[in-house]
């Protein structure tokens, strides 16, 4: 009985620790914005600044880098612009108690120096930082 109670308490405390540090994942196309649930953050995917990632169906020595520009606002505060990268730094930024991390950008270039005609989708993760 004591063993079952101890096991229950360990599992319950682990669940509380996991829920205390939740991560939201959002996906936006260029020009789109969203309010992240459970936060007051409004995030807008402004543009792709650079995309030197290895083109589809090509062999590359280096994976390349995708650099994107986002703007983030908290409530009624003025938006602040950030640049995030796929392989270079910074890949994440801390803002108003949250860490915003570049996860993925769709639509790799179709050839060297060739941009895609499709609006790419950017996936970001948002994690509440511990105080």
Molecular structure report:
This protein has a single domain, classed as Sandwich (Tick-borne Encephalitis virus Glycoprotein, domain 1). The chain has one helix at about 1-20; strands at about 25-30, 35, 40-50, 65-75, 80-85, 90-95, 100-105, 120-130. With about 130 residues, it is mainly β. The chain has a four-stranded antiparallel sheet, with no helix packed on it.
What is the compact description of this entry?
By secondary structure, the protein is mainly β.
Give the SSE layout:
Blueprint: H1 2-20, E1 23-29, E2 33-35, E3 41-51, E4 66-74, E5 80-85, E6 92-95, E7 98-105, E8 121-128
- Count of discrete structural domains: 1
Q: Structural class of the secondary elements?
A: mainly beta
What proportion of the residues is helical, as a percent range? 10-25%
* CATH class group: Mainly Beta
In CATH, the architecture is: Sandwich
Helix count equals: 1
**Strand segment count:** 8
Mean pLDDT: 83
Strand % is 35-45%
């Amino acid at each position: 009985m004591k063993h079952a109670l101890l096991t229950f308490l360990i599992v319950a405390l682990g669940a509380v620790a996991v829920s205390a540090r939740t991560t939201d994942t959002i996906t936006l196309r260029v020009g789109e914005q969203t309010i992240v649930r459970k936060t007051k953050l409004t995030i807008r995917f402004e543009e792709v600044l650079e995309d030197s990632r290895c083109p589809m169906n090509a062999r590359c020595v280096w994976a390349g880098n995708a650099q994107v520009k986002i703007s983030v606002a908290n409530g009624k505060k003025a938006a602040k612009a950030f640049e995030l990268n796929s392989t270079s730094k910074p890949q994440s930024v801390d803002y108003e108690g949250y860490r915003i991390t570049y996860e993925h950008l769709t639509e790799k270039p179709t050839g060297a120096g060739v941009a895609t005609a499709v609006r790419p989708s950017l996936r970001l993760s948002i994690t509440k930082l511990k105080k």
